[in-house]
From TrEMBL, chain A:
Sequence ranges assigned to domain DUF112 in this UniProt record: 19-440
Pfam families for this protein: TctA
Name of the protein in its database record: Tat pathway signal protein
Lineage: Bacteria, Bacillati, Bacillota, Bacilli, Bacillales
Transmembrane segments: 20-48, 60-83, 108-134, 146-178, 198-218, 253-281, 317-343, 355-373, 385-408, 415-445, 465-487
Keywords: Membrane, Transmembrane, Transmembrane helix
From TrEMBL, chain B:
Superkingdom assignment: Bacteria
Alphabetical UniProt keywords: Membrane, Transmembrane, Transmembrane helix
Protein species of origin: Paenibacillus rhizophilus
Protein name as catalogued: Tripartite tricarboxylate transporter TctB family protein
TM region positions: 41-59, 102-119, 126-144
Domain DUF1468 residue range list: 5-153
Amino acid sequence: MDYVHVLQAFYEVLKLVNLFYLFIGTLAGIIAGTIPGLTFTTAIILALPFTFGMDPISGLTLMIGIYTGGASGGLVTSTLIGIPGTPSAVTTMFDGHPMSQKGESGRALGLGIIASVFGTIFGAIILFFFGPLVAKISLKFGPWEVFSLMVFALTLIAGLSGASLLKGLIAGLFGLLIATIGYDPNGQLRFDFGMDSLASGIAPLPALMGLFGLSTLLKNIEELRNPISKPKTKANIRIPMLQVCKDMIREKFVVVQSSIIGVLIGALPAAGAETAAFIAYDQAKKFAKDKEKYGTGHPGGIIASEASNNANAGGSFIPSITLGIPGDMASAVMLGVLIMHGITPGPGLFQAQPVLAQSIFVALLLSAFMLLITQTALLPLLVRISYIPMAVLVPSIIVFSCLGAFALNNQMVDVWMVVIFGLIGYVLDKIDVPIGPIILGLLLGPKAEEELMKALQINSEITPFFAHPISLIFLLLTVSSIVLTIWKNRKSKTITKAE
Amino acid sequence: MADKIFSIVTLTIAGIFLINSRLFAEKSGTQAVSSAFFPRIIIYALIFSSLILLVSSFLKKSKQQGEGAKGASIAFLRHHWRVPFMFAWFMIYLILMPILGFFPSTVLFLFVGYLVLNISFLKKKLLIYIPLSLILTFVIQFIFENELQVILP
């Protein structure tokens, strides 16, 4: 490993301007995570236009701040009012809310914050050691291996499909199909239907803004009739640091175990922070001596949930930056951001732009400390922010996302794309069609086609895909992934029927 | 019913793309395969998956069929009328923006949006929403035009 690049990355990220962006990002992420209904994925999308004028390291620093802050921000409402700010904070609620109801809100929040900080640092360290290693191995991949890897990544659609694998598959294929609009790798114009605006293809970012941003806001309007109840606790909460430290030492095994689970799940493409949190919580409970106390305000429950969902970030960056495959939806958005800045995530990133690649690890590491300072110091403010009414937030965020899309190319056509994809996202959600696979198809489709064309140009036979060992492994993993998902779906249906 | 409509829509989209792919189905001398090769693999897979969904939706006994599903949709719209309203209002805003300009159209959009989404209408909230719409629009315009150098409509 070239430590000069690591030191250069530290020098870049530690510049005052980048530390400021990291602070703003962390704060924005925490706020987005704190407000139920808003996710940090939405916050990353909204922050996108602000990165246009920045250099890539500054833009990434801002985004990583939002990512880390958002992963932890959900704990405030989960603990105080029993409504998870983010899906990954659902398990925090299991013990955080009961602890808060016992009058120990400060202890619950303190445990969540410290566990989040530990999880983030753990994830960053793993990324530092394993990121370059995976990238080094993947540099040896030819077009056959990369195409097979893309096919494998596309089967992970199953992980984003929820109950209906078939609908998820259709959504993924739809994403792949719309990714073919515009010029192909040979410069041939396809599927423009006589419209100039389609010649340059469907840009992933307006599609993301529509599918995740606008459709989420429309869904939030449905929740207006269910106002959030205010907690009985005072806004001026103090964290008993001594007590929190004692709890952390007592639950040290849970901290490490949950962080490992978070990183491992994060490194699996498309698995997501919520999966990590559920598995970590379950494992912590299984290994606990006093497992009957879980769900009633046990410190281990909060620690397991928060350490794992923050460690997940470091893990999810491994496939994102080394292979160009998003670890979860938030890293899919960040992949889009890198592409927009002219950076191609993938095996070559550590060779072509080593300082930028290492600055991801540095920013992630520093964001842990920023998280600790911001969340501890601004806790009373965060409690108040969680009560901003949706009636005010929804129209304001719509205007922001509209201008964010407009700022991409200074064209209204991108804003109309947000509208179209927003409607598609909302309607598909209503009929239980998962949206995630569309994005996966849209992001991975062009790369998969490019590699397939390269492979067929070298050898027009399909046998090399099976003859190259690594390619064969990916194809076998693809088949296993499909078979396993079908088996799991059938098993869960049988259990449901039996119940 | 939703699965039937969804599969028919995806079949129609796949059909349109398949017909359109004939325009670039011939490969050039330098190409190993034509430009329609990859999209057609996806289109055939999409047709196959949509047909399975369509057939299974006919075989599956739906809980909400015919009038039941229609009734549920009407009830949903009656209960959540703000969703289609805000969507339509957003489209009107986008049409108005190039005509009226960013500032007046955004103030109008925000103000009406705040009012419509406010479940319990109170006169005193008008006093909050008017300055809020004005200040927020000004702040957004300032950030985008001065900090991000985006020329707004």
